[in-house]
Amino acid sequence: MSETRLRVERGGEVTQLLVAIREDLEADSSVMLLLDATRSVLEPVAACGLDETLRTSARVPLGQGFAGTIAATAVPLVLDEVRSDNVVNPMLHRRGIRSLVGVPLLSDGMVIGVLHVGSLTPRTFTQDDIERLAARAEDLAVFVKDRALVEEHVAALVLQRSLIPTVPPRIPGLDIAGRYLPAEGDLGGDWYDVFSLPGGRVGIVMGDVLGHGLGSAVIMGRVRSALRAYALIEESPARVLEMLDHKIDHFEAGMLATVVFAVASAPFDTFTVSSAGHWAPLLAGDGAVAQVDVPHDPLLGVEPATRRTEVQVSVEPGEVLCFFTDGMIEQRIDPGAAIDPDRGIALVAANLSAALTAEANCISILAGAMPAERNRDDIALLVVRRDPDA
After folding, report:
1. Domain end: 153, 172, 205, which one?
2. What is the pTM of this model?
3. Exposed/middle/buried for 271, CB within 10 Å: 0-12, 13-18, 19+?
4. Continuous segment of H or E residues that includes residue 144
5. Phi first, then psi: what are they for 303, rounded to 5°?
6. pLDDT digit string (tens) for 127-151?
7. Which is nearest to 181 in space by CA: 374, 384, 342, 360?
8. CA distance 264 to 313
9. What is d(CA 185, CA 335) in angstroms, rounded to the nearest whole number?
């Protein structure tokens, strides 16, 4: 068995793995079905020994038919005789599959799909067949999970890179630079945004959708787009965040996000700022750095009826605003040390200077405030400096 047991490698193909499984069980077909995102339907994603019509012709509701029963109970099942009334996909019967054995695909104890093999001649699958198929299913589940994690991470990174500008737009009168540093593990929903608005206004956003992975990145993209849309029709940052909160409550139930949104017009001497549970920006000028006094309204997704507040922040020529997500300040600066946001903010402030350009400030902050080890959380950083000659 050790020589024939499936060796799962990241670069393999699911179909090739199913070929090996079919051969090992001396069967005529092998099929893998995976639960969809709602965990209510099994979708056939790969097969060996069956034509394309059979592979893709049916989805199996959880709890129904042969595969649906296996997924619902997480228990192997044998059909000595395949009939049109005991399988959801009638093509199995029509294509001559006479007997089936199937086992659940498990990941961390949770069913993610079903693996089954079939015979074109009547056959009684034994307990040994079930155990061999279950062993193969363990390997296949590891492969699926590993590949899904890699693909999800890459997809989230591509999505996030497409939404977060590496080089922020040029705004006359402002010097702007930003950084997005993905964590070593899962990506999250951190983002920053800078965009022009009607009437010569500029919108500046720093936000964080709670959670990790592709799901958070996708929601982040929707939240980002919705905020931009609301900002086109509403001048008040507080009102924009109220509208965004209602949108999240209706369409993204259960999602939480923190956002700080600022709007300013040339010559950018005043920024109107509203915060939905997000860290207030730092303001640097005349050798001093202090956190802007912005009311800490509730996170988005908590109290959609909240009347949000906004404040006017004066920015003198040459002064610098620094926006950041919690990944920037909630770092373990020393191995084993407790997370101390106040210390993190102090480190950012110590490396922020009105004497530096926005780009130089980004470099200084990351060099001086980042721990020696790789960041464990996503980091978004945005520095906005008013033209000293304004």
Report:
1. 153
2. 0.68
3. buried
4. helix 127-163
5. -135, 85
6. 999 999 999 999 888 888 777 655 6
7. 374
8. 10
9. 18
pLDDT at 3 (0 to 100): 32
42 near 96, Cβ under 8 Å? no
| 311 phi, psi to nearest 5 deg | -130, 160
Residues recorded for the chain: 390
* Strand locations in 54-122 (E): 60-61, 77-79, 99-107, 110-119
Predicted confidence at residue 9, as pLDDT, reads 36
> Checking phi first, is residue 378 left (phi over 0); if not, alpha (psi -120 to 50) or beta?
beta
Torsion angle defined by CA atoms of residues 346, 351, 352 and 355, in that order, rounded to the nearest 10 degrees: 140
The domain containing residue 108 runs over which residues?
14-153
> Which letter does DSSP use for residue 25 in this model?
T
**Domain-ending residue, one of 121, 153, 185:** 153
Q: In this predicted model, what pLDDT tens digit does every residue of 103-121 receive, in sequence order?
A: 999 988 999 899 999 999 9
Average pLDDT over residues 22-28: 93
Question: Coil, strand, or helix at residue 250?
Answer: helix
